[in-house]
């Protein structure tokens, strides 16, 4: 089953820069160097030749052909930074940032467009000196004024609202000199140098007409982006395919010495995306040789679909690659903007109706483990080392919040983290549904006249919305159990674009969410759980959480000065979120399942990576003789 960010399209960040929150970091100890680290020193010293996880001798050339990532079956724009519309896949290949994170360490970045990074002694600002060789795709130099323009635009009214949340603690971008830019911070949030360094940069000339006037940023559609990335758009068929070619004048290819953060990266001359509207057609197209690699997120298809003569003769290969990514949270999310989900007892009851053990056995071929935290598979999880009570560091955060906001801190946070409901022996679905019925009765919902009803006689009924039919078998199993409680669920599926629009406007009762985890979370949590984000269309806070306690703990996470403080704050937040029952938790898999043609080659994977990004960045092709 799907466990990746593009499962919910409105949370797909280009190019996962705010998933560069995967590597949230900052410089405390480094000053005036290429690399900076959040805690201690970065792994790679100045002058390093390349990252350890790449093949520095990977051959360049050939064409990489891929299917549409996730559910996106069409596109209507090239601008990934605005709210409306569906962006073409691969557009992230056209943009770069001042710095880039390393995928084999938790919290460090290294200069890309910038040759030097300096954090002020008071930690209230960070400065970047831009490489004189850095160029945009139109041949113009990357200047400090372009960086300021990018920041100001992303913080403006025409960009996606999430950027205001993500960069909200950055006060301003200041042009110090033509090639030096400084970001001033509102406070000492230790993640801010990272966020400034990994912000996407684009040219001031993007959208300029021949007469010198500008197209409004939110009106940019098929105007070719002017970024500094290694690829340009060669051609496209609206909504069906897009071809990127390597920019022959790509600035990093014309340096006297290869730039270390680009050695072993982007090895293909062309990258082609073909969009398929049907998953079965996509798989058959792969078997027929229409593209080179496919990341599979459905257990049943992985077990039964990737078979045939080409797999038998070795023309096609399949492999599950281990990763150490935090699994984050995936589950059925309830929209707290709906009155029906306001009572925590109701939300908890709905969790008892999901029979994970049956699903894993009957549908998933026992390939999954249960989600047990908002930071699953990470030491930031409150139950990482077992179901235990909070540490003193956690209690130091939780006790004052309980005293100040008693209704927002569940009593259960002070005990061991409760597991997700299970039907494993000696438990059973029957026992779980009894517990659910008791909780619902306590909340005023009882079964009568053929339905679960409240005191006014209104039936318990809600709508489940999804962006395609591939999840229906799971939903059907879940809704059958809800029906045993007298709950009626109306399931609605739609195409990617319509679903994205509904999500942006929070027009749903329940839906499947996927919150990808970070090894060092930070400001992205404001967009995901912050009260202000819940009021802004298109934010990641689809649940609608507006809790002063959650806000306070997210603040503690963003202000953490070391790993111990981060761990305590993250675990405290985990306890509050988990015991508030906003989501019916689902499952995760610590591997990436990739099928590929035998001509495709790859280095050993890094510790932390997304499968699609790894293929784009570090794989290469050796053509058959």
From TrEMBL:
Residues 109-533 form the Solute-binding protein family domain. Keywords: Membrane, Signal, Transmembrane, Transmembrane helix. CDD domains: MbnE-like (cd08497). Gene3D superfamilies: Dipeptide-binding Protein, Domain 3 (3.10.105.10), Periplasmic binding protein-like II (3.40.190.10). It holds the Pfam family SBP_bac_5. InterPro entries: Peptide/Ni-bd, SBP_5, SBP_5_dom. The chain crosses the membrane at residues 12-32. This is ABC transporter substrate-binding protein.
């Amino acid at each position: 089953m799907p466990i990746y960010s593009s499962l919910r399209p409105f949370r797909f960040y280009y190019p996962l820069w705010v998933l560069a929150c995967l590597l949230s970091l900052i410089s405390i100890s480094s000053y005036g160097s290429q690399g900076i680290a959040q805690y201690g020193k970065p792994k790679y010293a100045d002058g390093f030749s390349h990252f350890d996880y790449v093949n520095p001798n990977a051959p360049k050339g050939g064409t990489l052909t891929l299917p549409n990532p996730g559910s996106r079956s069409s596109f209507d724009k090239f601008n990934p930074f605005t709210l409306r519309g569906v962006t073409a896949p691969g557009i992230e290949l056209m943009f770069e940032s001042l710095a880039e994170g390393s995928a084999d360490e938790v919290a460090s970045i290294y200069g890309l467009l910038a040759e030097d990074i300096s954090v002020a002694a008071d930690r209230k600002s960070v400065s970047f000196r831009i490489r004189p060789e850095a160029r945009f795709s139109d041949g113009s130099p990357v200047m400090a004024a372009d960086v300021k323009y990018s920041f100001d635009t992303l913080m403006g009214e025409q960009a996606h609202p999430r950027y205001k949340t993500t960069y909200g603690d950055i006060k301003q971008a200041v042009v110090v000199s033509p090639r030096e830019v400084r970001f001033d911070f509102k406070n000492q949030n230790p993640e801010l140098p990272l966020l400034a360094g990994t912000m996407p940069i684009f040219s001031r000339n993007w959208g300029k007409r021949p007469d010198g006037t500008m197209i409004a940023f939110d009106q940019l559609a098929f105007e070719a982006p002017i970024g500094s990335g290694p690829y340009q758009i060669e051609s496209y068929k609206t909504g069906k395919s897009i071809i990127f070619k390597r920019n022959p004048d790509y600035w990093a290819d014309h340096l006297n010495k290869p730039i270390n953060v680009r050695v072993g990266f982007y090895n293909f001359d062309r990258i082609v995306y073909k969009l398929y509207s049907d998953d079965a057609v996509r798989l058959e197209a792969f078997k027929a040789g229409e593209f080179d690699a496919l990341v599979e997120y459905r257990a049943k298809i992985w077990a039964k679909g990737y078979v045939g003569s080409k797999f038998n003769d070795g023309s096609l290969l399949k492999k599950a690659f281990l990763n150490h990514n935090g699994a984050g949270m995936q589950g059925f999310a309830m929209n707290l903007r709906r009155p029906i989900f306001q009572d925590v007892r109701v939300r908890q009851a709905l969790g008892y109706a999901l029979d994970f053990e049956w699903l894993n056995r009957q549908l998933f071929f026992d390939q999954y483990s249960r989600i047990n935290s908002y930071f699953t598979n990470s030491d930031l999880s409150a139950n990482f080392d077992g179901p235990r009570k909070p540490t003193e560091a956690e209690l130091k955060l939780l006790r004052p919040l309980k005293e100040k906001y008693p209704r927002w801190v569940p009593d259960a946070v002070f005990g061991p983290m409760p597991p997700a409901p299970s039907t494993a022996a000696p438990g059973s679905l029957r026992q779980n549904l009894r517990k659910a019925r008791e909780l619902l009765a306590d909340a005023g919902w009882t079964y009568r006249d053929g339905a679960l009803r409240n005191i006014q006689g209104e039936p318990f009924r809600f709508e489940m919305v999804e962006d395609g039919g591939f999840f229906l078998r799971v939903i059907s199993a879940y809704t059958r159990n809800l029906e045993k409680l007298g709950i009626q669920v109306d399931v609605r599926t739609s195409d990617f674009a319509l679903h994205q629009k509904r999500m942006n406007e929070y027009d749903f009762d329940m839906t499947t969410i996927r919150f990808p985890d970070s090894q060092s979370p930070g400001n992205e949590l404001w967009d995901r759980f912050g009260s202000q984000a819940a009021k802004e269309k298109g934010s990641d806070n689809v649940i609608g959480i507006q809790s002063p306690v959650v806000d306070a703990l997210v603040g503690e996470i963003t202000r953490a000065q070391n790993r111990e403080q981060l761990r305590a704050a993250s675990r405290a937040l985990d306890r509050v979120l988990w015991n508030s029952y906003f989501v019916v938790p689902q499952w995760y898999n610590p591997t990436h399942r990739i099928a590929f043609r035998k001509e495709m080659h790859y280095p050993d994977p890094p510790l932390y990576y997304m499968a699609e990004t790894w293929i784009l960045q570090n794989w290469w092709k050796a053509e058959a003789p």
